[in-house]
Amino acid sequence: MFVVNNVPSNNDSKLVKALAFPFQIGTSGFPAMANPQNRVYTRILELLSTSPWERVMNNKMGVNVHQYVFSNMTAIQQARLSSEISNAIQDYIPGVFVNKVSVSPLEDVDKSKNGFIFNIFYTVNGQSDKQQVIYTPSATGGI
After folding, report:
1. Where are the alpha helices (DSSP H) in the chain?
2. Which of 21, 32, 135, 139 suits 69 as a labelling partner, its CA being 20 to 30 A distant?
3. How would you write the pLDDT of the chain (143 residues) with one tens digit per residue?
4. Cβ contact 64:87 at 8 Å
5. What ranges make up the beta strands (E) of 1-143?
């Protein structure tokens, strides 16, 4: 499960236009378009929630976040996960340059939740932004 704390402020109209998801009819009767400021963070969430080998036509796409959830998160493991996320974003989200990804274990008071807090710092069309995503695995394996 992902929790997004804020929608990025990046509202550059030159971002790639895409259909709104879920599909809906816009005010003009044509398919509604996605808000450009939501597009980058939506793509990041899609990428983080996709495991490698999950997509038939692009089987290398995705980040294997789930494998790290129950492992002993050493500094080396955090660096590996950070690098994996950064590389995936650079490879699969066009126009996004990743400046830094920091990974922190989710500290739950009663230790009943495992997960991570991802702080992703990136630049799109010369505008810097930050996205914080909280990841906890769900029983169904999805978001």
Report:
1. 36-48, 66-69, 75-92
2. 21
3. 444 444 444 444 444 566 776 677 878 888 877 665 567 877 888 888 888 888 888 888 888 888 887 777 888 989 999 999 999 999 988 888 999 999 988 876 556 567 888 999 998 878 888 888 888 776 444 44
4. no
5. 2-4, 96-105, 116-124, 127-135
